[in-house]
Amino acid sequence: MNRLDLANSFVEQYKKEVKTAYRPKFHVIPPFGWMNDPNGFSYYNGEYHLFYQYHPYFSKWGPMHWAHVKSKDLVNWEWLPIALAPDKDYDKDGCFSGTGIVDGDRHVLMYTSHLHPDADNTSLYIQQQCMAYSNDGVNYTKSMNNPVISTKMVPKSGDHQDFRDPKILKAGDLWYSLIANRNVDGSGQILVYKSTDLENWTYHGILCRSCNQVGEMWECPDVFQVDGKDVFTISPMYLPQKGDAFSNIYSAVYFIGELDLEKPEFAGSDFYEIDYGLDFYAPQSVETPDGRRIMIGWMQTWERNYPTDDMKHGWACSMTLPRELSIADGRLVQKPARELRAYRSNHVNHKNIELNGSLSLSGIEGNALELDLSVDLKKSKSLKIQLLKSNEESVDLTYSGEEKTFTFSRANTKTKISGWEDHQVESRTFHVDVQDKIRLQIFVDVSTVEVFVEGGKYVSSSTVFPLDRGTGVEIHSDGLLEIESIDKWDIGI
Ligand code: FRU
User: What residue ranges line ligand 1, CB within 6 angstroms?
Assistant: First the structure.
């Protein structure tokens, strides 16, 4: 059997074996095995297609395949056969991240082939760029000309190993491919290649480079328009922590500015972190038919222990919810995609509740839900919301009015997560600019918590694995506090 058929039949056979305790209900997750980056996020033939880095055989990273799901509404995803397997001489050690675009009737993928030319030396590898095409959005055929961008086409300033994660854009009749590369100074840069036919590419120049100012190697570039501005996102490795930003050693950041592909140049702002959670990396975006820009990220990061793998549950990792992007005051604003509202049920609302101490509200509990709160902070300065609460565990969200900070914490859960960071990765605190009122939109999905603060000005996404798997929600105040309104919906597909 070839490697694609083998992977597909393995998943069919073993997906029944996954342990379901921590599987989210309305997020994209692998049926079996390991997932990382979203890939090829695109809209083709009236449906969204999302691929992802996938190791079908085990709940740990391994030779990468491209898993494939599609959806009409960005929430309810249908599993399709694995699109790419590492089955060629040039990509036998992995089909790494890349892009999905539509060219006429064709669905086109560009991915990075990963190869260890010397079987005994895994620190030596070659990364080159390859194409695959489909006319039905199910079966993808790799180009006979692969790799279409070889390492020979990397300029002298670029390292020949780290060269990956192409993002394709079209301008006029030309296709441009933006590819992450390590400069010989060790830090990230984006190389640009151009083509008229997606098969023959020429080197065009350097779009931008880090000069060691923005972490080390950059991964997974994306460029798109939002509210008339160009937004450039990358995932830099080892970006040093600065204040409350970039505290995960693998961060995802954005610049807002102007893209000039012809030059090529991205003239932009300072850079900001996309998500203030403990688990967010390598996002990709797509444009909806009605012109909205939607982003999905990998709700994990590298060099951590992955609890469902530790517990031998047969699967690991999930995507974030799809988020709608806009720009306000020079910053990216992210709101949960409006399509999610169609999956709300069992609505409970409480209004004007005065709280002094602790409170749980009737009808407000669960482990797959949305909670929207608006809290008056004039009298009390602090608020704590406990989610997934049982007798001994809880996931805690705290707003401190004195510090004007918001804290997500999984420290009060018994499953411990640690990473390469030289600090704990059990909680994360960030500054929020609120005055007399705070608005929170919270999504809990079994082992994921995403918090949208102040209408998406700040977002925090993290995974949680409480052993007791409680479903309680408890709110605490330090002094008198008024909850103007709290809405709860169960979310299910
Ligand atoms: C980012 C990344 C990419 C690479 C892929 C491999 O998370 O390291 O740079 O293409 O994952 O799975």
Answer: 36-37, 53, 64, 96-97, 112, 164-165, 219-220, 281-282
Can you tell me which atom of ligand 1 is nearest the CA of 53? 12
Low-confidence ranges of the chain (pLDDT < 50): none
Nearest Cα residue to atom 9 of ligand 1? 219
Probe target for ligand 1 pocket from 97, 217, 301, with the most ligand atoms within 8 Å of CB: 97
The 3-class secondary structure across the chain, one letter per residue, is: CCHHHHHHHHHHHHHHHCCCCCCCCCCCCCCCEEEEEEEEEEEECCEEEEEEEEECCCCCCCCEEEEEEEECCCCCEEEEEEEECCCCHHHCCEEEEEEEEEECCEEEEEEEEEECCCCCCCCCCEEEEEEEEECCCCCCEECCCCCCECHHHCCCCEEEEEEEEEEEEEECCEEEEEEEEEECCCCEEEEEEEECCCCCCEEEEEEEECCCCCCCCEEEEEEEEECCEEEEEEEEECCCCECCECCCCECCEEEEEEEECCCCEEEEEEEEECCCCCCCEEEEEEECCCCCEEEEEECCCCCECCHHHHCCCCEECCECCCEEEEEECCEEEEEECHHHHHHEEEEEEEEEEEECCEECCCCCCCCEEEEEEEEECCCCCEEEEEEEECCCCCEEEEEECCCCEEEEECCCCCCCCCECCCCCCCEEEEECCCCCEEEEEEEEECCEEEEEEHHHCEEEEEECCCCCCCCEEEEEECCCEEEEEEEEEEECC
Per-residue pLDDT of 68-125, as tens digits, reads: 999 999 999 999 999 999 999 999 999 999 999 999 999 999 999 999 998 888 789 9
Give the ligand 1 atom nearest the CA of 235: 1
- pLDDT 10s digits, 185-239: 999 999 999 999 999 999 999 999 998 899 999 999 999 999 999 999 999 999 9
Question: In ligand 1, which atom is closest to the CA atom of 250?
Answer: 7
Report the pLDDT value the prediction gives residue 199, as an integer from 0 to 100.
Answer: 98
pLDDT value of residue 478 = 87
